[in-house]
# Entry
Amino acid sequence: MKLSILRLFLLLLVASASTISFAQNKANFGKSPKINQKGLKLKTYSSTPKLTRSATDWTKDRFEITGGIGPSVFLGDLGGQDSPAKPFVLDYEPTTTRYSVSAGLRYFLREYHAVRGSFSYALVAGADSLTNYPNRRYRNLNFKSPIVELAGIYEFHVLKPDILHFAGARSTKVFNGSRLGLYGFGGISMFYFNPKSKFNGDWYALAPLNTEGQGLPDGPKDYKRVSVAVPMGAGAYILLNHNYKLGLEVGYRWTFTDYIDDASGYFYDNAAIKNEYGKVAAYFANPSVSLPDVPNTDWYTKNQPRGGFNSNDTYMFVQVTLSKSIGPSISNKPFKQKKSRKKQTTDKKKFSPLKWFKGGNKNKTYKKSDKIKNKKRKFKSPNLNFGKKRKRNKGKVSF
# Structure
């Protein structure tokens, strides 16, 4: 009796296990498992892949190549608005705008802290003829100068693009996050300038002409054409695909020289300059002598102000920037990895459950190009026509 009950219990256990197995097979019927080239099943995402944020994601693209182009603005002693000199951009004359270009390298020390080395070339200019304020207009000074700048800059990024990555992925991705970046910067730079002015159709470098009596008794010292500046400003950018960033940067340069436009101190005795340095130097020292309608010639005599010696010259760059990160490519295509995995499975023949039930090959898969041909080969008789042909009498015999 006990033995029969035990047999009945075992029978029910086997029946229930077979029922569960059959239900699972029925649920998976018609579905093809993902198989890679080695015959192993691939793990693919059934829905949107899980996204994670890591504290080290920013290290994958910490090097950047940068470039910029845009207008340059000079803020000095020459030209300006129709009034006495004003500080900062309040005295800016738009017609003196020229150009600037720059290139450099950026390196992120921390996630929001970066340093940048940049090389810039720009042209700045100014002219008293562009203002209607009498004291400045009849002074009649004008100049243009190149700016060649080498700068070291520190950047603090207030806001950076939201970089995420797929769980298990090796490279970082951008996925439906903010692409905007904001930063402020400051640093130090060294720059070269060389003010020039035009006389009788020719351009002359003004520094060697000593237009303020440099080198003469009681005159100022010669100024150097290499000086130091403090760059400061801010920028904004948007992250594009493939690690490119397009932005706008405004940079102000506070310099340690007041001679970018060759005007800083007081007028010197024009006759003494002419005797010591020549006619051209005397003309650039006081160009008002070429104007016939000067209201008061005493404005431009010895010891009268020739420039704004109370403040140094400054200049600005407003540039459209483009930078490229040297690192894994960043993309906003969230299903790129899933598609690549699907592509690997298309090279294999799909598994058919129908053949499995019919007893067909269930463990072998072949490419379409690897089909086995079981056709019988036809016997071909050997070709006995070989050797040289010889002439015998009138006929030809082949061996």
About this structure: The first strand starts at residue 51 and ends at 52.
